[in-house]
Amino acid sequence: MLWFAQLFPWSLWHVGLHLRVARMCTLIFFTPSCSSSLRERADVLSHTELWGRGYSDTPLDAPHDSRLFTTQIFFAIASSSISWTGAASGGFSIVGFSLGGGITMAFAAHFPYLINSIVLLAPVGILRYIPDDYKSFLFRHASFIPGKYVRRAVGKLLGVPSPETGEKLSTGLKDIDSVPEAVEETALVGQKKINVKEIVQWQFDHHKGFCHSFVDTIRHGPIMNQHSDWRRVCDLIKDKKPPLDILHADSKLRNSKLFVIFGDSDSIVVADDILTDLHRMLGGHEHLVHKIVPGGHGFPIFSCGEVVGHISEFWHI
Fold first, then answer.
1. What is the phi/psi pair of residue 67, to 5°?
2. Contact predicate 13/1, CB 8 Å
3. Which of 99, 159, 189, 236 has the most CB atoms within 10 Å of its CB?
4. CA-to-CA distance for 54 and 107, rounded, in angstroms?
5. Which residues face 261 on adjacent strands?
6. Does residue 236 belong to any structural domain of this protein?
7. Per the structure, how many domains does the chain have?
8. 3-class state of residue 221 by DSSP
């Protein structure tokens, strides 16, 4: 799961990489449940976490922006014994979930010749608004505030108990219904049940760099106002090449389709808003395919079978 990174309570945790039989590499920025399902259709699948999530260290001397995450994509593909770049590799496709969607479009805008196809799941990047709690003074100026207060605010935002006080803090998120209490926030991955809140709680309690990465991603990550990068990618997909742009000439994204999946009750990434902007950038419906599935912002976790089915249909695998 690339929720690679965590932007909203359950963002991409891992970057999944898999090699398809048809010699097509795919870089996946979304959930373990979806990755496990796609693994059945892949020859090779590997994972790496975003900075500051899971077991990965937090870089304290670099902003968590598109440049840092682009570097991590190159780290991921360079760590493989399989060639992901160059004419002989055949290129690779990317699936980006939430923050991973913003990362994907930023990467594709600058390295389009490496990519064959793009799938976005509830992507951020051109959001029209984010919850007010994410725009607070504390998050905008976290470097001037003692760490314990930043940590307390992050815990409150994520709705996890504070280990310092033992108190369960209320969340400021309106989209908490995407992981309903009635089903105990669990998803079935293979034969195992995954509790989303327990994963967030573990990172909050034991990963000393998690809060810094979380806050810095809110401040610098590709969440809003990324229209310039998105337009570059959309111009390429509809085959409108900027003059003398040789990087676009050999890209398999030219005259292709962008595939986007949304949750029908997602209050963070609103399908109508994103689709309106994408239709404008792509000049209509011809180069855009979209699906609406049940669920809030965490739909790839809880509706992974349907999501993987749509992706498999789009890729004909």
1. -65, -40
2. yes
3. 99
4. 22
5. 121, 291
6. yes
7. 1
8. coil
Task: Say if residue 310's pLDDT is above 80.
Answer: yes
- Which residues make Cβ contacts (< 8 Å) with residue 120, sequence separation at least 6? 95, 96, 97, 101, 104, 105, 258, 259, 260, 261
pLDDT at 270 over 80: yes
pTM of the predicted model, to two decimals? Answer: 0.83
Residue 106 lies in a domain: yes
The number of helix segments (H) and strand segments (E) in the chain equals 12, 9
Distance CA 222, CA 146 (A): 26
Q: Partners of 290 in the beta sheet? A: 260
What pLDDT is attached to residue 190? 56
In sequence order, the 6+-apart residues with CB closer than 8 A to the CB of 48 are 14, 15, 17, 56, 72, 75, 76, 79
Mean pLDDT of 256-261: 96
Return the CATH number at 263: 3.40.50.1820
Helix extents (H) in the chain: 32-39, 66-78, 99-110, 137-140, 147-158, 196-206, 210-220, 227-237, 246-249, 271-282, 299-302, 304-315
- The amino acid that residue 194 corresponds to is I
Containing structural domain, residue 30: 14-128+223-315
